[in-house]
Automatic annotation (TrEMBL), chains A, B:
SUPFAM superfamilies attached to this UniProt entry: GntR ligand-binding domain-like, Winged helix' DNA-binding domain
Gene3D superfamilies assigned to the protein according to its UniProt record, in alphabetical order: GntR ligand-binding domain-like, Winged helix-like DNA-binding domain superfamily/Winged helix DNA-binding domain
CDD domains listed in its UniProt record: WHTH_GntR (cd07377)
Classification via PROSITE patterns: HTH_GNTR
Keyword Oxidoreductase: no
The protein, known as: GntR family transcriptional regulator, gluconate operon transcriptional repressor
Gene Ontology MF terms in the entry: DNA binding; DNA-binding transcription factor activity
Keyword Transcription regulation: yes
Domain HTH gntR-type: 13-79
Keyword tags: DNA-binding, Transcription, Transcription regulation
DNA sequence: CTTGTTCAACCTGTATACAAGTATATTATC
DNA sequence: GATAATATACTTGTATACAGGTTGAACAAG
């Protein structure tokens, strides 16, 4: 296990999930190249487990469209910049839907929860803990999404989450090293979002929202262009 | 295998997928009740296959949130009317996204393809073939969705598709028996949609679109209320 | 040199075996 | 009778075994 992914987060996972998490990280960080053929036997040797958990892992990655299960072997599809843009499209679509619902209801508890998470994000920045920051960032958005208690929107998110988690992790590790000042803006955008929810200010939501996505997307473009940066971002972990 | 699902559609599937398809149909049609605990051993006896394909099936259904994998046994979550409304929410969200893209591009091939599928839908109605009609209906929407070549929207759809397929199958079988005249309106709505794409008429798209979803959703409500109708719909197959 | 055939080394899908965990019923203790 | 300990009959997660199927290289024939 290459440990690209923080180990303690995997505590309760089965072997299949662990392998999937590791492979996912390696595929998205281009440590495993597009076009590579993975076989169950080879992976079971590499990870020192039997074929059963490997099969579980491959099935998971197939659902995320990171690999394609063929007659013989699984072909790595990988992820391009276009994919990343598309994933942001989808996130934007889902969260826009969520906000339309949020504006129609009382959000006292939600706001309280978001403020707590945001404070933790600030601490993570202070201690330059990119991993922790990433997980809190994800949690922030997940909290918003799940607040509307819409099961099927929740399902969409849970299917998308693993890949988004990888992207954010790599992105934030990179920023932490090379664009530390970015975090001011990220925090500001999140504060704006909370404010917008408090005021039920639809235009402000839209603004905060698009701003955040655009900022995040624009700023991180450099990373995905540069193989060396990607490698450093994936090697970096406590 | 209870054969709620047309057998010939399963031609190239593995045992796991077949079992998943059958279980999905049984869960959604309330043949298996919410709260039921499924165990791998019990299912492997019932379907006369080993635990391996059963495990595959359960993993698939878990991703669709139809069951929940617990420490011991898999609990059937099932599907309520609220879920069905939520699934329509999600479909509406996805297809709205798709249409915003479609209006920005040339759609000659798409229109041609849709017209072909629509003609087949008409034939299916003429011969009262609810199954074939359902699959063509799904194909119609899938054709629209995939036409924008947006991989991650495609992934969302492919995750949603199996459940939607079940819902449509049950719904259309019911209508074919009890609301045959509904099909006139369904066809009309699809024609409207094609027309809207041809004219790149955004308001018309919206109208055709909401109309179709509302019609379909409203009209089918009766089915999901009535356990007897559901049973008949699931028993009905050539 | 090209084409067709055979064969060996792989692959996956499924079946089975085993280890470790959990719930339930039963027994022992107070 | 009530409560705690234990036994038992399940369960899942992982490992392994086996049956086809697929690929590609070696080789024979033209």
């Amino acid at each position: 296990m290459k440990a690209f992914y923080p180990e303690q987060r995997l505590a309760a996972s089965s072997m299949g999930e662990r392998v999937a998490t590791d492979l996912r990280m390696r595929i998205i960080s281009h440590d495993i190249e597009k076009g590579t053929i993975l076989s169950e036997n080879q992976l079971s040797k590499e990870y020192q487990v039997s074929r059963s958990p490997i099969r579980d892992a491959l099935k998971l990655l197939e659902k995320e469209d990171l690999i394609e299960l063929k007659k013989m072997g699984a072909e790595v599809i990988g992820i391009t910049e276009k994919d990343i843009a598309e994933i942001y499209d989808v996130r934007l679509m889902i969260e826009s839907f969520v906000f339309r619902r949020i504006l129609k209801k009382d959000n006292e508890k939600l706001i309280h929860e978001l403020q707590k998470i945001l404070e933790m994000m600030k601490i993570a920045i202070k201690y330059k803990d990119a991993n922790e920051f990433s997980f809190k960032d994800i949690e922030f958005h997940e909290t918003i999404i799940t607040s509307i208690q819409h099961r099927h929107i929740g399902i969409l998110w849970s299917n998308l989450k693993p890949v988004v988690e990888c992207l954010i992790l790599l992105d934030m590790r990179h920023r932490m090293q090379h664009n530390y000042e970015d975090f001011d803006r990220i925090i500001y955008n999140h504060e704006l979002l909370i404010q917008a929810i408090i005021e039920k200010n639809e235009p402000l939501v839209e603004e905060a929202f698009y701003k955040n996505f655009n900022d995040v997307q624009k700023q991180s473009e450099g990373l995905w262009h540069n193989p060396e940066s990607l490698k450093r971002a994936s090697d970096f972990h406590e």
